[in-house]
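Board notes (copied after class):
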Amino acid sequence: MEKFIYKLNLSMEELEKRTHKDYLTTKKMLATDAPEYLNLEEGDKKALKHLVKAASVLDKINMQLDNPYNLPFKEFLEKEIENGNEQARLTKILFDGQKGVCALDRESNMVELLQGVSMREGKGLYPLDLEKNEFHSILIKMIKSGKINEVKTILNQRSVVERNGEELIAIDYIDKFKDDFRHMAEELEKASEVSTNSDFNEFLKLQAKALREADPMLDAYADKKWATLQNTPLEFTITRENYSDEMTETVVENPELKTLLDEAGIIPIAKDFLGGRVGIINKKGTDAILGVKNYLPLMAQNMPFNDRYEQNISPNGDSKQTMVDADLVAITGDVGEFRAGITLAENLPNDDKWSITKLDGGRRNVYHRQIRLITSEDAKEKMQKRLDATLNKELHKFYNDEADHWFTIGHENGHSLGPKSGTEGLGKYKSIIEENKADMISLAMVDVLTEAGMYTSEQRNQIIVTYAVDNMMMSKPTMSQAHRVRSVMQNYYFIKENAIKISPEGILDIDIEKIVPTAKKMLEKVIQVQLSGDFEIGEKYVLDNFVWTPEMDIMAKNIKKVSKTLNGKVESPLAEELLK
């Protein structure tokens, strides 16, 4: 990287505001004296130490995938802090929370901690000076010159792209960060020698092997084994999700390039960002979550147009879906970034992974207890103030924090329903539409699951009301925020269908009996878009519904009056102790 002068971008006034407890929310992972940890077998305690070390390496790797300035800026901040620079100390708090120099806050404002450095479409995965039009032009020339395999590698999900003269060259993640991945592999192998569960140890060995050699099939074997884990005391995951790459999928927007790619049989897949998750399985929470498993075939049967596609979950009873509730010790890299929000759960591997496409493997849901739990009286008081400011008082009785968890369970399982392939042509709208699908499945199935006995009538109403309240936004998101764009789309659609109303004063009212039918109607539209695999159809669907209305704006102002949170951070005391 060329010589760069590091200048802090945020003023002391701005930093003091954003790092104040009223504006900076904190998610606390397990403490050093947590009973979940103390009750582990000694072998699992030893294994946990190695797993935390392995996960910590992913912070270093993923920061480089995110922005090439991240690591040198982190080093700069640490030196400045040693010299007593208070501005650097406060900047480091935000940097550690968002894990990078640039990130969106809760109000969808871009927080840039370093002067002269902004968020790029290609993040750190592509050359910083590569613009979209030049990218397309280079790929067209490379295809026409017969470099099909090279272009295929450039457009896959596991490579970093660099300039090579007038062309581009892709380097597999494993080769790009060979020393770091080897270090991770060593720690996983050490963990497998002391952990008490043989299935978990087999997975660790497979994952370690995949970190030593750039072969996606090795990842596939590890992913397939990981997706079968159900009764293990510990949790370790390398998360690979591709929501943040805004460059790769633009290729379908260029008609000439799209035609050449189709003729060459190249399917562009957005690049993965990498995260680490280390946890202790909570048996009671897991048993509660597993209650949905018997209903997954029923959900598959009730999917619209289900005779026109293959689903990850079979309507005939073979769900290939495991699920666990995890007490978190550490979340690192992509999964640990607090950028506008932080994930409650994940359903992996994604449909583009070889364990799904080549090995017909299953999927696994991991739910994050420390992210979702609201335990302090202060947090409960803040939630009540939000309800008072935004929701019809007659509906307050139906709001339930736990119902948000039930909805999330439906959402995560929803990712395993619907078309499992053929959506790549939706380009930059693919992720937005997929998140929209998962939400609508969770809502559309509420009555089916209530009739089947999974939910009581009261729980049904709680899920509906809690969803509608939590879906309200404190600002209009940017198009890069897939999860938040889908929330606006859904609010707009439900307003159009008179399932929800927002008064001139910004108070939400919900027609509980209209929510599920409206969700079913929107779900049908989503599935039709996914089946089309057509960029223009997907674009029209998203833009027709991504409408920020005046009443949404009034609601947002009400939320901001009672919720000042702009940024967030994670504290991991047990992980920090284990790293010593």
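Comment from the instructor: The chain has a mean pLDDT of 96. The longest strand covers residues 321-332.
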